[in-house]
Specification:
This protein is an alpha/beta fold. The chain is built from nine helices and 15 strands. The structure holds flavin-adenine dinucleotide.
């Protein structure tokens, strides 16, 4: 069996696509895992997005603790005799995958940008050396455990006619010795760059914090409204919150349109937005790296280009 799990259902939908490709090639079933209370409608959704069946590990536990979840997973793997485990690469997913691998004494590859079968072995690719190389790795141990970030794969089209079994099972596990004392929400401006269809991004080419208003104006004119930025803008200058930060150590995005103004296009920034549909770059340096990744490039001073672009867009789309 091939197992797919994430506590974020959108990531699960994406992983089910790749999971079903691998399961088909192996002639095995693809199973989506839910840990928690039985949720018939979520189970049905997983089936609609490609799962052959859904394994619900019933529990009253409602807060994530990696040690307890790894315990449940160990039981699920034994019960289903699964040899490939694909987990969503968010914070919880990465902690779960590595703990599980440690417990089972098997290999684990984190943050894969592709997974496929080669010589019948699960093979993965991941970005290494700050985006300067791709490591291609294979597993010598079973089960093979990988984590895949959001937006690496697209979900399959939803097919509500698909049918599958919902398997329910309760496991007795040892309760964790750790206790969650407090959950503190991260400070956020409520921006969600990861789901945005249009992103207008700013970089160090802006001289002052106030000038970023031009980016907001362009975003408003395009009716995209989502502003992104390179690392220095969020991390060093703190002109925008970290919600806006795009790149290797920031958010990975996949909008239909990505406009980068005053961003040089270092590999660490490109790593977060290279999958965008159309990339437009504005930079005064004709040799700027960003132009290598761009579909359209405007060589010019952003302080001259942006006001003209904003009024041209307003004229065109009102
Ligand atoms: C481990 C690691 C992780 C990292 N993670 C990330 C990450 O997640 N995201 C990220 O963005 N970076 C990341 N970085 C940093 C990255 O290497 C770059 O330093 C950063 O992306 C540069 O940001 P920038 O393009 O805004 O600034 P700069 O590199 O300073 O580029 C500014 C650009 O603006 C142009 N410019 C200047 N004035 C104007 C003007 N008036 N009009 C038009 N163009 C103008 C310049 O020609 C230049 O190309 C990481 C680095 C490391 C080592």
């Amino acid at each position: 069996m091939v197992l797919v799990y994430s506590d974020d259902k959108k990531i699960t939908f994406e992983l089910l696509n790749k999971g079903s490709e691998i399961a088909k090639e192996l002639g095995e079933k693809l199973t989506a895992v839910i840990i928690g209370k039985i949720d018939e409608s979520l189970s049905q959704e997983y089936i609609s997005y490609g799962a052959d069946d859904v394994f619900v590990s019933e529990t009253d536990i409602d807060t994530f603790k990696a040690e307890e979840y790894a315990n449940y997973f160990e039981n699920i793997i034994k019960e289903t005799k699964s040899e490939i485990i694909i987990i969503g690469s968010n914070k919880n997913g990465k902690e779960l995958a590595s703990r599980l691998a440690g417990r089972l004494d098997v290999g684990c590859i984190i943050d894969c940008t592709n997974i496929y079968l080669k010589d019948n072995k699960l093979t993965s690719e991941r970005v290494v050396y700050s985006g300067n190389a791709i490591a291609v790795e294979q597993f010598n141990s079973k089960p093979a455990i990988v984590t895949v970030p959001s937006k690496v794969f697209d979900p399959l089209p939803k097919d509500e006619k698909r049918k599958g079994e919902i398997i329910k099972k309760k496991f007795e596990i040892e309760k964790s010795a750790s206790k969650i004392l407090k959950v503190q929400e991260m400070k956020s401006e409520g921006v969600n760059v990861e789901d945005a269809e249009i992103i207008v991004s700013c970089g160090r080419g802006f001289k002052n914090k106030e000038d970023i208003k031009m980016i907001q104006d362009l975003a408003d004119a395009i009716k995209g409204r989502t502003v992104g930025c390179s690392r220095p803008i969020a991390a060093d200058l703190k002109w925008l919150s970290e919600d806006h930060w795009i790149g290797l150590s920031g958010h990975k995005v996949k909008p239909k349109l990505y406009i980068a103004a005053g961003i040089s296009g270092q590999i660490q920034h490109i790593a977060g937005m290279r999958d965008s549909g159309i990339i437009v770059a504005i930079n005064k340096d004709p040799e700027a790296l960003i132009f290598k990744s761009a579909d359209y490039g405007i060589v010019g001073d952003l302080y001259e280009v942006l006001p003209k672009l904003i009024s041209a867009v307003k004229e065109k789309i009102g």
